[in-house]
Amino acid sequence: MKKKEQLNINYIDYGDSEKDPVVLLHGWGQNIQMMKPVGDFLSRNNRVIIIDLPGFGESPEPDSIWTLYDYAKAINELLTKLKVNNPILIGHSFGGKISLLYASIYGCKKLILLGSPFKKEIQKLSLKTKILKSLKKVPMLNKLEETAKKYVGSKDYRDASPVMRKILVEHVNLDITEEIKKVKCPTLIIWGTNDAAVPLERAYELEKLIDDSAVIEYEGCTHYAYLERLGQTNSIISKFIWED
Prior knowledge:
Blueprint: E1 2-6, E2 9-15, E3 21-25, H1 36-42, E4 47-51, H2 68-81, E5 88-92, H3 94-105, E6 110-114, H4 127-135, H5 146-151, H6 162-173, H7 177-180, E7 187-192, H8 201-209, E8 213-218, H9 225-228, H10 230-242
Helix pairs in contact: 1-10, 2-3
């Protein structure tokens, strides 16, 4: 597996290059490592591309204030360079919101959303506090590389650069409800019932907005439900992707 850089975006590209490409997008303040436990499993039957979103991991932050539409466009440009069209998208949180926009604008074969916000949430706790509270409940994170732990929650509003702060504000305030109605691909929505960052009710709102979609609840799990039940997540996603 080899790291590459294209359009100032760091990513890894591995697995079966002859099979359908799966693109994984991490959440705010995270990096490639947070999506590898899913990507590694899928790589046995798919081409897998995991991206460090600009401003995170080894991808430099944008020179200007990017909207989520800019993020979607940059990903599309990268995938075009990689000769990827109609990808299967998997997005967690911030990455899920970008995935929704990508699917609505450029289209994709299938979409998997993991605790993905799509409109403004009233935050009673700071983003960093929510992340740290969630991480304490996710044993799987103890098995990830130290680089993954270092990035989780390290770029919230208080610690982020001026550019990333403004991008975070734009992300939090952006309502993409109308864009979601344009998503036409089969969509799987996985959510923890104890998600304190994005409430479970949002999952069912997404299900109503996307015609061909279904919600799977992880009872007692947090915003990192996909890692808390990694085996179940990999089993569910692989069946969704591999079985027509």
